[in-house]
Amino acid sequence: MLNTLITSKTRKKLLLKFFLNSASYTYLRNLEQELGESPNALRVELGKFEKANMLISSMHGNKKMYRVNTNHPLFSEIHNIIYKTIGFDQIIDRVVKKLGGINSVYLTGSFAHGLDSNIIDLLLVGDEINTDYLVRLIPKTEKLIGKRIRYLVSPIGELNNYLDQNNGYLLLWTNN
């Protein structure tokens, strides 16, 4: 659906990169390597986002660093559109809330780095998660959102060990 609304694949990749992970802070050459796009295409799109005040830039040495402007009036709406087009809203509604015993859900893998993928990697944290029900729900949700879901279930006590060993994660949902 996002492809229908946004025809520029470079723009779509930048939206995913910055609006999925609002803590993302990067520079042009890094984006070039990460997104596999030409520096000129990236520079044009970054300039448009910056002109619209959707991205903020600052100089660090000789690198121009970019990050999303979370104070932009449309930030929340764009963030929600991205979540919905990827299917995170369906995952939360159909999977997380029905499992019981879930304390938090983390997004890992490509999407945690703001990269589009056909696979959504999740870390489900809780002590009494109904894994039998999870096994039945995942295929139905995959069919609904058109993406594959890989998951890892972790007890609450092991969460810090996992997070210490992995730097690419985003908190999607918490019970707190």
Which shape, going by the Cα principal axes?
globular
The number of helices is 8
Strand order of the largest sheet: 6-5-4-7
For the termini, the CA-CA separation is: 32 Å
Counting structural domains, the number is 2
CATH superfamily of the largest domain: Beta Polymerase, domain 2
Here the CATH topology of the largest domain equals Beta Polymerase, domain 2
Radius of gyration, taken over Cα atoms and rounded to an integer in Å: 17 Å
Give the class-level CATH name of the largest domain. Alpha Beta
Task: Tell me the major beta sheet.
Answer: 4 strands, mixed
Gross CATH architecture of the largest domain = 2-Layer Sandwich
On the 0 to 100 scale, the average pLDDT is 86
Q: What would you call the quaternary organization?
A: single chain
Give the strand tally: 7
Helix content: 40-55%
- Percent strand: 15-25%
**Structural class estimated from helices and strands:** alpha+beta
